[in-house]
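Figure 2 data, in text form.
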Amino acid sequence: MNTNEFDFKGIKISGFLMIFVHFLVLAGMVGMIIMANMVEKPDMFIVILILLFVLLCITPVGFMTNEPNNARVMIFFGKYRGTLKENGFFWVNPFYVKKKITLRARNMDIAPIKVNDKSGNPVMIGMVLVWKVIDTCKAVFDIDTSSLISEQAKQVAAARMGELMKAFEKFVNVQSDVALREVAGHYAYDDNELQHAETTLRSGGELVNSHLERELNERLKMAGIEVVEARINYLAYAPEIAAVMLRRQQAAAIIAAREKIVEGAVIMVQMALNKLSQEQIVELDEDKKAAMVSNLLVVLCADEAAHPVINTGTLHQ
């Protein structure tokens, strides 16, 4: 069977024209009844009346409307006959099965799931995606939606499209979980454990989202579904290691801050020594310079404010 979508080439007539024909058939039935009462042998008129009655009962089944961004998958006795995407009010062969599918974009918020990142750390990750059906033939015939539709909904014809799209949502949801686990396993949560600067889930941004979109499109291509956009909207360590990782991040932040403080203190000490030497304010030997450097570093790098001690003696006492 052809699993590629193509346009419906069958006969379709304006629905308004067929309504006019429908009333003509009704008027013809009234005329046949009158003629049958006027002749002695009305057998022929009765046969025609029965045919017109059957036609009157069958023709309403062929009416259908197609709204913008909706499509009708046309099936004739089990064979795919094309997809009708033209908008309007039409009448087609009553024996066609006309499955209605929306082509509009749909949002889906994937709840956070627990996965292991590249370093093996358990993390909670969730995403939001925008998807739509682009190949109605594959969507209807290449995936089994019968197990995803509730038994009650199968018996309600009016809810067919809604339940069919919900079945597609469940299919997308399952594949999204798998794709999310696959992509998360390629990246570490952050760069704490990495020897070199690499893309991480926290810093990856567009690169990680692009990877996620490609992975989803590869998995959903078989169902005729395209992911327009996929973005990670929730990212956190799993509860069992969140407290430990928070302390680790705090320690890393403290170390980085200390490095900046020491770097700045060394620069300030160097500036102080150079300034004293240039202005010839005081001459210091190597021992005094070492003591001064030590005192300045203690003052500049200390967590608490320094408490100055006034020396009332000489320079050497």
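Caption note: Confidence is low (pLDDT under 50) at residues 151-159.
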